[in-house]
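re: ur question from yesterday

yeah so i grabbed the chain u mentioned. its 293 aa long if i counted rite. heres the sequnce exactly as i have it in my notes:
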Amino acid sequence: MNHFQEKSWEHRVGRVPNSTRLSDYCGPVFPLLGTKTATKKAIVQGRILLNGKEGRTSDYVREGDLITLKGTGVTEIRKLDMYIPVVYEDDHLVIVNKPGGIAANGNRYKTVENAMVGVKSDEPDALPRPIAVHRIDVPTKGLLILGKTKSALTGMGALFQQNKVEKEYQAIVHGKTKPEKTIRRDIAGKEAVTYFETIETIPSRIYKNLSHISMKPLTGRTHQLRIHMATEGHVIVGDKEYARHIKTILGKGMFLCAKRLQFDHPITNEPIDVSVELPNRFTRLLQREKDRF
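ran it thru and got these structure tokens back, copy pasting raw so excuse formatting
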């Protein structure tokens, strides 16, 4: 039995909209849960208490209620035998260079979280394994932040909610992009804003033009960068989900990389600025198209 199973965390409900269910409320306030599915599972397991009594998915929360999350729900953690490069690490955070083709977390075995089993912290609120603070798409390569402690998870969650984490992605897209542009286009009814600027555009015999761009998402919607660039007519190379009728390169992965992160450490307030090199295939693709032309 994992000794972390016995840990518990409490949360006092502040102002909350009427008719807010316990199953909807807990995910954002307990980063260890994160999703509605995980919350419902914890409720069924009897790990979520509402004012000292086992909660139900049909319960509503009100201002002043005390919610208790008991344990992590983890009895045994099986490590994924996969090398994930670490870019930054301290007792609270670990930042990795996620390969393409692996999920950050979720109800599957092949995840970055499972590959990080064994990465420990000596802090009193240490988690049984590092937990992803945010997500990047499975086919996207690049920087991913994981919390090693409960306080770091909570602090990083607040930074992301307040848009205090500056993210830079780089991609190769189809077509000749503008020198720079701010895209404002709602996604699933929610505001979504992306700024991009062009690093280089090259002519291509097969694809007419390819552009190497830098992007900064100013909001954090699912597939935001991929959707915004596709709606601009500039599908990210290798993005088979949004390419539709556009001929793109398949079998080489998606040419999108989470390249740089800047934020103030949630515990120490130290400025953190980390970056990774672009995958070699970015350079190879651009050079190959130049040589062909």
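noticed a couple things. The first strand starts at residue 8 and ends at 12. also The helical segments are 22-29, 36-44, 112-115, 150-161, 224-231, 240-243, 280-292.
anyway ttyl
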